[in-house]
């Protein structure tokens, strides 16, 4: 396969996914192999929801919609146009995936295959249904992928490079275990928002998307606010109000009740609105249904702090000029070139030496 053939296969996959991005998924006649895969995909989505209660129908549709839009020919060609795919021969690349949000490992999967390598995938048990099914669809639309995609639940063997995503604790294990292989090792990251008190109602409503999409479980989900001293949180809570139906999720509601009880018993000072709590805390990773906040004195000092903590931060929601800056409401819409942890995955893959 050449690059154009690989891109074409993923374009077809994107068209297949687009059918399931709507609430009432109906088959499109022009989609190849729909007669074989459409009903099966609906079943895999049902299994995903049953296996992981964070993967609601709405969150699954959101993930599929984003990937359907990303797998457009123009996007794929633009993304790959600046790389040299002739630097390396085909390698066997292992991917150890997280399972915090639906298809969280798909970008790595796409990157390995679009680079012309073979992939060995070890999935999280929290997100194990969709990707193998989509891989099977890929093999139908492009038979040359057959034999190049392997999923395993056992110990990874027979690989020449690795991309592993996990917690800070597992990252230490990964770094030791894979020290003799070319690797990308990812750790915990969270996203933050910088508020000034001058945000419009529309911006704060948009921020609610950055906070509540995927129930705040993604590394691009805002888990912490930086606010000026004297900040009035009334406007912030008003912007969050549109997401009050999050309490319809029993899993979220249980976490809210539990964490609220812990805070109250510990005599922590919190503010809450019935579905979201905010707590002053210097940490970046906040529990479910909680947003941490921290006051800042001036933007120059804040910029210095965030630069020092760069390895803990995925992106920063602000209208100001900060590194990794993202506009309000846009954290959950990464482009193909928005690499996790700022590590250029495609450069790593295209530079694997013979």
From TrEMBL:
This is Acyl-CoA reductase (LuxC). InterPro entries: CoA_reduct_LuxC (IPR008670). Keywords: NADP. It comes from Kordia antarctica. GO terms for molecular function: acyl-CoA dehydrogenase activity. It comes from the Bacteria. Pfam families: LuxC. One of its GO terms (biological process) is bioluminescence.
